[in-house]
Specification:
With 309 residues, the protein is an alpha/beta fold. It has one domain: 3-Layer(aba) Sandwich (Rossmann fold), CATH 3.40.50. The protein has twelve helices and nine strands. The chain has a nine-stranded mixed β-sheet, sandwiched between helices. The longest helix is centred in the last third of the chain and has 23 residues. It is globular and about 55 Å long.
Length: 309
């Protein structure tokens, strides 16, 4: 693995923020990442979705920092990472994430992925299972319905023909619930929403990676043995509740949590509830991980359906 330019700033000696580091992946793409929080805490890897950068996790990074070592990165094609011409693939983007863990010296992490990042997380859970302590799949799916394939294709065409401004305007209403859209829109620039600052060719390449993902991945989810949680908003119209129900049914260790009143952007518009759910799961999953390391066999996890308000 080529880690060429490791970091612009050396790792801190104690807890705190690690700013502006990069890796160069094994295929020559520079990936930007940041490490925050408690250096000795359980590592958590956060993977964002289509067109979003690591600041889309800002509210979660702040919440998790006192207790976890939080690693977030910009997918290829977004944020400060390189934005090469396509094609991209979900498998390659999963390998980018693994190489970020390698650069951080992390053998295993709790992996949290949202939307496209949730698909990347599924690939990590199946193809790189030895690197995973738990999986959290947020507003995502294991297969693409034909209507969603057409919608994403339209977004890519809007980006390439009319620019990212129109694409963002069209897509935002699928991401944030109607009651929250006007209230949250002034903050979207800081939180790193879909498509801001992403060149059209990179956005289209990410879309193509999603559309070309192998649906056979869904059949392999039954091999997941680590704790898993699937979180969805009951007003999510981009990856509706049915997608999350299918995910949870396919993973024998998974629990499903449905957040009332939340849409696709639930990490932002319902961040208090989301952070409580995620934090509780990570605590349980870390206890389970430590028990496995110690050779203690846990009782088989229950397959739960929970509703959060």
């Amino acid at each position: 693995m080529a880690l060429g330019t490791a970091a612009r700033l050396a790792p801190p000696d104690g807890d705190g923020w690690r700013l502006m580091p990069f890796i160069t992946t094994s295929d020559g793409v520079r990936i930007h990442y940041q490490v925050t929080g408690k250096k000795s805490g359980p590592p958590v890897l956060l993977i964002q979705g289509l067109g979003a950068d690591l600041y889309g996790w800002q509210l979660q990074r702040i919440a998790l920092a006192p207790s976890h070592r939080v690693i977030a990165f910009d997918n290829r094609g977004a944020g400060r990472s390189d934005k090469p011409r396509g094609p991209y693939s979900i498998d390659r983007m999963a390998l980018d994430a693994i190489e970020v863990l390698d650069a951080c010296g992390v053998e295993q992490a709790h992996v949290v992925g949202a939307s496209m990042g949730g698909v990347i997380t599924q690939v990590i859970g199946v193809l790189h299972a030895e690197r995973v302590r738990s999986l959290a799949l947020v507003c995502t799916a294991c297969k693409n319905h034909e209507w969603r394939r057409e919608l994403l294709g339209d977004w890519a065409n809007f980006a390439l023909t009319d620019g990212m401004r129109r694409m963002t305007r069209e897509a935002s209403r699928w991401v944030v619930g109607p009651r929250s859209f006007r209230r949250l829109s002034p903050a979207l620039g800081w939180l790193g929403p879909l498509g801001f600052g992403v060149p059209p060719h990179a956005f289209a390449a990410q879309v193509e990676a999603i559309l070309s993902a192998d649906d056979a991945l869904a059949d392999a989810l039954g091999t997941v043995t680590v704790p898993a949680i699937v979180i969805v908003g009951n007003q999510d119209i981009l990856t509706p509740r049915g997608d999350s129900e299918e995910l949870a049914e396919r993973m024998p260790t998974a629990e499903l949590v449905v957040v009332s009143g939340a849409a696709h952007g639930l990490m932002v518009e319902h961040f208090w509830t989301f952070n409580r759910i995620l934090g509780g799961f990570l605590s349980r999953a870390e206890r389970s991980h430590r028990a496995r390391v110690a050779g203690v066999v846990d009782a088989e996890p229950e397959h739960d359906l929970l509703a959060a308000t």
